[in-house]
Design a protein that fits this description.
The structure holds two protein chains of two kinds. Chain A is mostly helical. Chain A has one domain: MetI-like fold (Orthogonal Bundle). Helix content of chain A is 78%, strand content 0%. The radius of gyration of chain A is 25 Å and the shape is globular. By secondary structure, chain B is an all-alpha fold. Chain B is extended, with a radius of gyration of 27 Å. Chain B is built from eleven helices and no strands. The chains are: A mainly alpha, B mainly alpha. At the A-B interface, helix 1, helix 2, helix 3, helix 5 and helix 6 of A face helix 2, helix 3, helix 4, helix 5 and helix 6 of B.
Chain lengths: 282, 303
């Protein structure tokens, strides 16, 4: 009887969520005044569509284009790698302060509870770290790019910081969650031996979280490559820059060359991070 | 003492090693060093950057308070509320609407791709171990179906939303469809891949039982596989919905009416005060949707 009621309740809430999604979609279509006909290209748009896809099998590769292509690819990697080089330390520091594990009041039953004053300070640091993560993460990297371009002027550093800030916070959030889910026995044992919080964190918690943390960092690198490519639309000389130019001048063959290059680059890192995850799962 | 040392050495030798991960780490460090050595990003030019920043900070002050106007919180609030009433609320609603339609469309496409992309279902004997092997050409055909579906999903998610939207905008003109389709395709690629993994991890007992009773592949998929995947897929659905809200804001910068188009208009007109209001409104929207999505994910998990 009891079990049935619990089960019924769960299914009921799921149904509420599903109905909510359907209702939201209906509202959205009404609010946007969406006409299915607009999704079908006509007239000049149809010509663009036909010509663009006709060129898909004829990607161009001239000597000048090859130089552009290599510059775009290398710059994409440079922006992504520079941003990740900043985001990783930021994420590790934020992740340390935003995880509950290092200041946790659960002492593993050995009675070595931190003092009340220390708990308050730790709590404040924790809340500050969590708030910073939520705040800086809620602005998309391309919006950061727009803001930083306006604030700091045209310089590659604006683009690097634009990716590094939200990515660092996302890494911090995920690192904190991963560390918090690690089994705590080793940490308790270390604390029982009198280890400082940093020691507990580095030797009791981090080793068991390292695989997940590394896998996620590689996945973020792949995302950073995509973001760096799109930064090209904002004037940085990455793949997106050359893609936009080729498309707007109607050189669809060249546009396809850049698209294929982007696909190859992202595909390579997709495979790499996937292989890394599989190697950890083994 | 030596016993203990020997024991420690034995433990050390027996530690689990992952050559691939170590190699990857080395390659990544070399890559980062090469980038640092060759990129030559100028850290200099600080003076000009500082002047830029100072100009920006004065321009961010709400317009009625710029110059010599005395500081008055009420004026600033009035200014902000008028902005919200005139454009902000409508743009935020449009952003949400685009994200909702995109994620629903993405889930529909992904669900269609999930089943043929799952290796345990898309084969000659679905989810039934220990039966006689079928002719090689049937097995090969199923493997080809899986590979093709997975390749399409990879293609969909490898192209960034922004690039999809840029291409669709040229082909469909300025209406909400380019943004919706761009978000839907990219997220269909992601949800389809995640969904295939969920299907590959389902408990095979129920499907095997149905198979033993003579159920067809479609019946097994509909009644024994998909119901098992629903809670997991709902989690992924809301996780991607959060991302869609962020991206729907950004895609507006291409000229599709949403918060992003307001941001871009303000940037072009150099009204940085308005621009910061729109960016902040976008951030608030993301935080609200994140909270809503956390609640919905809890409900989907059955908590």
């Amino acid at each position: 009887m009891m079990a049935r009621r619990v089960r019924g309740d769960r299914v009921g809430r799921r149904r509420v969520v599903a109905l909510g999604v359907v209702a939201a979609a209906a509202w959205a279509a009404w609010y946007l005044d969406l006409r299915p006909g607009d999704a079908i290209p006509r007239g000049e748009h149809w010509v663009v569509l036909r010509d663009f896809f006709a060129e898909a099998v004829h990607p161009v590769l001239t000597a000048t284009l090859r130089a552009e292509l290599l510059r775009g690819l290398w710059n994409t990697v440079v922006f992504a790698a520079s941003a990740m080089a900043l985001a990783l330390p930021l994420g590790i520091v934020l992740g340390f302060f935003a995880s509950t594990a290092w200041w946790a009041t659960d002492s593993g039953g050995d009675g070595a509870r931190p003092t009340a004053a220390r708990c308050v300070v730790c709590r404040l640091v924790f809340v500050a770290a969590r708030s910073a993560i939520a705040l800086f993460r809620s602005v998309h990297e391309l919006l950061w790019a727009v803001l930083l371009l306006c604030a700091l002027g045209n310089s590659p550093l604006s683009g690097v910081f634009a990716i590094a800030i939200p990515y660092g916070c996302t890494l911090g959030k995920v690192f904190a969650e991963v560390v918090d889910e690690v089994p705590r026995e080793a940490a308790w044992a270390l604390r029982g031996l009198g280890a400082a919080p940093l020691q507990v964190f580095c030797f009791g918690l981090l080793p068991r979280a390292l695989a997940d943390v590394t896998a996620y960092a590689f996945y973020r690198f792949e995302c950073a490559l995509r973001s760096a490519a799109v930064l090209g639309f904002f004037g940085f000389e990455t793949i997106g820059y050359f893609l936009q130019q080729a498309f707007q001048t109607g050189s669809y063959g060249e546009a396809w060359t850049h698209l294929y290059a982007l696909l190859a680059l992202v595909g390579l890192f997709d495979w790499w991070s996937g292989a890394l995850r599989r190697s950890f799962a083994r | 003492m030596t016993d203990r040392t020997a024991e420690l050495q034995r433990l050390w030798r027996a530690r689990s090693r992952n050559r691939f991960a170590a190699g990857s780490a080395v390659v990544m460090v070399v890559l980062l060093l090469a980038v640092a050595a060759t990129s030559g990003f100028a850290i200099g030019g600080g003076g000009e950057r500082l002047r830029n920043l100072r100009r920006f900070v004065t321009a961010v002050v709400p317009y009625p308070l710029q110059g010599d106007a005395p500081f008055d919180v009420r004026v600033a609030i009035d200014w902000g509320l008028r902005l919200l009433r005139d454009h902000g609320i409508d743009a935020a609603a449009r952003t949400v609407a685009i994200a909702v339609l995109a994620i629903v469309l993405a889930q529909i496409i992904a669900t269609l791709c999930t089943l043929p992309a799952a290796r345990n279902l898309a084969r000659s004997e679905p989810l039934t171990p220990g039966v006689a092997p079928s002719p090689w050409w049937r097995a090969a055909a199923w493997r080809a179906l899986v590979s093709v579906t997975r390749a399409v999903l990879t293609l969909l998610r490898a192209i960034p939303e922004y690039v999809w939207a840029f291409l669709f905008l040229a082909m469909l003109g300025a209406n909400p469809w380019p943004a919706i389709l761009a978000l839907a395709l990219h997220n269909a690629g992601i949800l389809g891949r995640l969904g295939a993994e969920v299907v590959e991890n389902v408990d095979p007992a129920a499907p095997a039982a149905l198979r033993a009773l003579g159920a067809s592949r479609r019946q097994i998929a509909a009644f024994a596989v998909v119901p098992q995947t629903v809670p997991r897929m709902l989690l992924y659905f809301f996780y991607r919905f959060e991302t869609c809200i962020r991206e729907a804001t950004v895609l507006g910068m291409l000229g599709i009416a949403s918060l992003g188009s307001l941001i871009d208009d303000a940037r072009v007109a150099r009204r940085y005060d308005e621009m910061v209001v729109w960016v902040s409104l976008g951030a608030v929207l993301v935080l609200v949707i994140d909270a809503l999505s956390v609640w919905a994910r809890g409900a989907a998990r059955g908590r």
